[in-house]
Amino acid sequence: MSGARTSALASLRGQIERIETAEIVHQHDRVALGHGEADAVLKGGLARAAIHEVFCEGRQGAAATGFVMGLAGRVSAQRPLLWVRQDFSELETGALSMSGLAELGLDPRRVVMVRAADVESALRSSADALACDALGAVVLELWGDVRQFDLVASRKLTLAAQGSGVTGLMLRMAAQPLPSTAETRWMLRAAHSPPGPVWDAWGAPRFDAELLRHRHGQCGRWIMEWNCDECQFSEPSTYSQPVAAAPADRPDPAVLWERRTA
Q1: What are the C-alpha distances in Å from 238 to residues 156, 189, 243?
Q2: Taking a C-beta distance cutoff of 8 angstroms, is the pair 107, 79 a contact?
Q3: Is 141 within 8 Å of 103 (Cβ atoms)?
Q4: Which of 35, 87, 91, 237 is deepest in the core (most CB within 10 A)?
Q5: Tens digits of per-residue pLDDT, 29-73?
Q6: Is the pLDDT confidence value at 257 over 90?
Q7: Confidence class of residue 95 from pLDDT cuts 50, 70 and 90?
C-alpha cells in the first residue's frame, strides 16, 4: 500500500513540476492582437500555450466565431489550425464558410475540421490535439451548458497546452461561465457599423469585446475592428473606407458656397 502511495505522490509531483516548468517557459510568449489598449491590458498580447474562453449569446454566434477565428489566425503563426465542433452545431449555427475565412484574410487550407459525436469525444479530441506541437491553435466549440466540461476537464486542456506550447480557444455559445483554468475569458457581441451612407456601410468587421477575466492582469471592454488585409485587430477607424484628399489645385467648396450665398 505504501508503495502505491509513493508512486502516486511521485506522479503528482511530476505533474506539478511539468506545469510549473511550462508556465516559466511560456510565461512571456505572447502575440499582439493589434489593438493598442487591449494589448496593453494583456501585457503585450494574448498568451500562447494557454486556454482562452470566448462566450456569447446564441444570436451572437456569428460574431463570436469571427472573433475566435481572428484570435486563432494571430496565435497560430501560419501553422495548421484544428477546429473541433459537435455534430449538431451546424443545425444551431450553420457550417463554417471557407470562403468567409478567405475574405477575413485567413488561409482556409490551414483549417482542419473535426466533428465529434458528443461532448466527451470533443474534449478528448481537443486534449489530444493540444498535446501536438505541430499545430498552431486548437478551437473547441461547445454549445450550451455541458456538465462534462468541469474544472477537471479544464485543467487537462490547460496542462496539454502548457506542455506543447499550442494555444487553445474555447468557443462557448449560449452557455454560462463556470470556474475554469482559462487564462482569459471574453464576452463577445457584434458592434454597430459607423454611421454613413448606405453604399458605404459594408466595412471592416467590428466586435464589442469584453474581457471578463484575466488571470494575470486587469480587464476591460473595447470596440475591436478586424483588418482583413493585415490580419490583425485595431482601434475602430473613423471611416470604414479611406477618404481621398481634396485636389490641391481646386478651391475649397465651402468657400465657393459662401461666395455664392453672400
Answers
A1: 44, 20, 10
A2: no
A3: no
A4: 35
A5: 999 999 999 999 999 999 999 999 999 998 899 999 999 999 999
A6: no
A7: confident
Q: Which residue has the higher pLDDT, 245 or 99?
A: 99
For residue 26 the three cell numbers come to 511560456
Q: What is the pLDDT of residue 18?
A: 56
